Amino acid sequence: MKIESFLGLLLMFAITLALGLALVWVNIERVDLAYELKTLERELQDKRDQHAKLEVERHYLLAPAQLRERANEMGLRPPVREQIRMLQQ
């Protein structure tokens, strides 16, 4: 009877140890995933900020006044009548 109770106690200890290690492993994985999620959320916010800035810059560069100014700097003028060609369909 003594050996059976010792083996039972040893088995309970092994099961408790295994469950404890599993719990620690799950918690470590949870922390790692939370850290990775935080990093990805920060990266996503940075990308959204960059996208918003690029949209503002795009609207600025495509504004008619800005296009007119850049065309003048490059010496571009509206075409004269002789430069316009009509294509027949």
Instruction: Round the Cα radius of gyration to an integer and report it.
Output: 36 Å
Residue share in helix: over 70%
What is the β-strand count?
A: 0
Mean of pLDDT = 94
Broad structural category: mainly alpha
Short description:
The chain is mainly α. It has helices spanning 2-61, 64-73.
What does the secondary structure layout of this molecule look like, with pairings?
Elements: H1 2-61, H2 64-73
Q: Could you characterize the architecture of this molecule?
A:
0% of the residues are buried. The protein is rod-shaped. With 89 residues, the chain is mostly helical. It has helices at 2-61, 64-73. The chain contains 2 helices and no strands.
Features:
single chain; 89 residues; mainly alpha; 2 helices; rod-shaped
